[in-house]
Amino acid sequence: MAAPIGIFDSGYGGLTVFKAIKEKMPEYDYIYLGDNARAPYGDRSFEAVYHFTLEAVKWLFDQGCQLIILACNTASAKALKTIQMHDLPLLGSEKRVLGVIRPTAEIIGQYSDSKTVGILGTKGTILSNTYPIEINKFYPELNVYQQACPLWVPIIEHKMADKKEADAIVQMDIESLLAQSKNIDTILLGCTHYPLLEETIKKHLPEGISTISQADIVADSLQDYLSRHKDIEQNIGKNGHIAFYTTDNTEDFNTNAQTFFGSSIQSTHVDIQH
Ligand code: DGL
């Protein structure tokens, strides 16, 4: 059976990554799943994020996916390794789950002249320390500073990005990051929701500091992965078919997803809880 590529996020943020993937590889079939009913994941325990992500992964496998992208830093930081090491061997040797942190860590050192980068992410991503650990494998000389932004995803999920309160919160978190080192010249938006706040973020950045968002990095990395893994690539459906699923209200998802994805979409409700 021709398998769609599964794309998963806690909610809407993964759509920013999916948009780039679809633009780069429009020929493939895709299923997007947003666990909006349980978003945000950012403040949740390791056990909860692992449990929710595993439910999503199993559901996507049941839909025929063989390859799943966790388009969510929090799930990539807190659940991916356990799923890869513990669950995938039981679920089928031909199945793959990839995240967004490693492809970003592989490339981030190329962006910074001062060899000093800042990472903005959810509390879960930052406290897991996954970014400093992964970046150190590729760029041991790079200085990495981090700042958790626990209110940013709720702001975005509640469509409050253009409110003045959002502006003040973004400014406060950016100042906390930059206070850690004068040498930061590059800031990674280490949460797939954050490109939706990009305008506000840029407003509060001093000149000379640039931001990186992950969408194109992850899309390029997936394309490269598929060119190296023909056994997986050959099983992917190639009819350009896309299906969207949400664990919450479909009308809300359809309206909000349009802002994130750029074009109008129709979603189907699904219950993935076991
Ligand atoms: N898009 C998810 C991420 O990249 C958001 C996590 C959340 O639900 O808090 O981390």
Report on the architecture of this protein.
This protein is of the alpha/beta class and 274 residues long. It has 13 helices and 10 strands. A 6-stranded parallel β-sheet has the order 4-3-1-2-9-10, sandwiched between helices. The protein has a 4-stranded parallel β-sheet with strand order 6-5-7-8, with helices on both faces. It starts with a strand and ends in a 5-residue tail after the last strand. The model has no long low-confidence stretch (mean pLDDT 96). Bound molecules: D-glutamic acid. Residues 9-11, 13, 39-42, 72-74, 122, 125, 153, 191-193 line the site of D-glutamic acid.
List the main descriptive attributes of the protein structure presented here:
single chain; 274 residues; alpha/beta; 6-stranded parallel beta sheet; 4-stranded parallel beta sheet; 13 helices; globular; binds D-glutamic acid
Main sheet record? 6 strands, parallel
How widely separated are the two ends? 25 Å
Bound chemical compounds: D-glutamic acid
Chain-averaged pLDDT: 96
Number of distinct helices: 13
- Given the helix and strand composition, which structural class is it? alpha/beta
Work out the helicity level. 40-55%
Summarize the structure.
Helix content is 46%, strand content 16%. The chain is α/β, with parallel strands linked by helices.
